[in-house]
Design a protein that fits this description.
Layout (H helix, E strand, L loop, with lengths): L3 H17 L17 E6 L6 H10 L4 E6 L6 H9 L3 E3 L5 H12 L3 E6 L9
Parallel strand pairs: 1-4, 2-3, 2-4
């Protein structure tokens, strides 16, 4: 599990949360499987939704492979992180490829994080 960029992010996240003076506490982490693939659904309410989810899975010694809108690859730093943390870019006009990658990651025993918007960006027809 040698992923140096991911490991550095885990350390930075824990330091930032500790320095904020508002420690995070989690309930229900026992429901995150210790092994095998699973989808973790996360309610999208802010730009840092991923942080508590990632830290909760970290408590279970697991890493979360997030799905992220492909447009974020245009931000150089974010694109670097996407490439080095097995994040799954989703082209919202043609998302089938991203879901194929997510299914493959699940078959490999990974946790896949899907951030869901309370009011979807996609129109329901």
């Amino acid at each position: 599990m040698a992923e140096p960029v991911f490991r550095a992010l885990e350390i930075v996240a824990r330091v930032v949360v500790a320095a904020s003076g508002s420690p995070l506490s989690f309930s229900g982490v026992e429901h995150i499987p210790a092994h095998g693939g699973a989808v973790i659904a996360i309610n999208h309410t802010s730009y840092v939704d991923f942080l508590p989810a990632a830290l909760a899975t970290y408590q279970r010694r697991r890493r979360l492979r997030f799905m992220i809108k492909a447009e974020m690859q245009q931000v150089k730093l974010v694109n670097y992180l996407i490439k080095h943390t097995k994040t799954i870019p989703v082209d919202r006009s043609a998302g089938a490829d991203a879901y194929a990658v997510a299914v493959q990651r699940l078959r490999e025993g990974e946790l896949v994080g899907s951030i869901l918007r309370p009011r979807s960006a996609a129109a329901l027809n």
